[in-house]
Amino acid sequence: MHTRILILIVGLFYTCGLTFGYSQDTPKYRILASASMWADMAKNLAGDKAIVDVIVPIGGDPHLYEPTPGDAKKVSNADLILVNGLTFEGWINELIAGSGTDAKTVVITNEVQPIRSDIYKDATDPHAWMNAANGLLYIKAIHEAIIAHDPANVDYYKGLYEAYRDLIEGLDNYIKFAVKKVPEQQRVLITSHDAFKYYGQAYGLKLEAIQGISTESEAQTSDMIRVTDAITKYQVPAVFIESTINPKMLKQIAKDNGVKIGGQLYADSLGEEGSPGDTYIGMMTYNTDVIVNALSNANTTDIKFGDETTDSYLYLILGLVLLGIMGLVFLKLNK
Ligand SMILES: [Zn+2]
């Protein structure tokens, strides 16, 4: 009899525990990101507490995106909507207004110092995430939005945020270190559209692009001449295509001027899952490796896209440096 009561009591506690656990972990809330870069950031910052979804699919161009009825449904089901702003997603306000959602919309660039457009008055360059130091401001904004939405789990989110912040600080240092390996006069980055201004400003590269800071306006003959002039003036060894933009025009310019395509860069979208650009940190690291490799090796043979040997080589050097530092710390501690 006592055993039965004991089993009943234990069973009751177990059920309570399950119920308690259940109510803590579910239902998950939904975070919707306009583009894949901040969807990845949100996954890193929300961990297993939220379902993260994205509007513009991988490889899509957020400047020109046309929302689908499926997107309206995603918006109306969302709890938090993460938006870049700075005139990046011109279509999103209408989408949000039309969906009747009561989700909180968070503009994640509010603390960013925007770069003004050279051409359009009052327009800003949206590509702020291309500077990893701005990436830190993006993740801070997302982290704050998450803890405001789910304050009960603040300690959990803080742990995730601090670990992720350390990684992005490391990324920023890595890019600074890597770009310095390119001879100074060769630090010129020619791309399909002007998505690298923040990158160039932060890490010390001159920039030229066929299209402006948005892909909305078609490239003109004058743009091709301007880029050709820059190739001649700076004697750049390579130009770079982008994963979201048709490479035809830049390939033609490269051919006409006898320069190489240095590789395919990620700017407005992450790469496909399994590619080296499938996370924000991955895309920034990969871009840097491709740029540094192509601009440093002016006289080598054709550079393949995503040259893994070079990537491994860079990681090896970085690994050795880290080992050296750890060795020094170890020696110091054992003195
Ligand atoms: Zn862009």
Describe the structure.
The chain is α/β, with parallel strands linked by helices. It folds into two domains: 27-176, Rossmann fold, CATH 3.40.50.1980; 183-322, Nitrogenase molybdenum iron protein domain (Rossmann fold, 3-Layer(aba) Sandwich), CATH 3.40.50.1980. The protein has eleven helices and ten strands. The strands form four sheets. Strands 2-1-3-4 form a four-stranded parallel β-sheet, with helices on both faces. A two-stranded antiparallel ribbon has the order 5-6. Strand 5 and strand 6 form a beta hairpin. Helix 6 packs parallel to helix 10 (280-296). The radius of gyration is 24 Å and the shape is flat. Mean pLDDT is 86; it is low at 10-23 and 299-310. It binds zinc ion. Zinc ion (ZN) binds at residues 63, 127, 193, 195, 267-268.
Provide tags for this entry.
single chain, 335 residues, alpha/beta, Rossmann fold, 2 domains, 4-stranded parallel β-sheet, two-stranded antiparallel sheet, 10 strands, flat, binds zinc ion
Q: How is the secondary structure organized here?
A:
Elements: H1 2-25, E1 29-33, H2 36-46, E2 50-54, H3 69-77, E3 80-83, H4 92-99, E4 104-107, E5 115-116, E6 124-125, H5 132-149, H6 154-179, E7 188-193, H7 197-203, E8 206-211, H8 221-234, E9 238-242, H9 248-257, E10 260-265, H10 280-296, H11 308-333
The structure holds zinc ion.
The site of zinc ion has 6 residues, from loops.
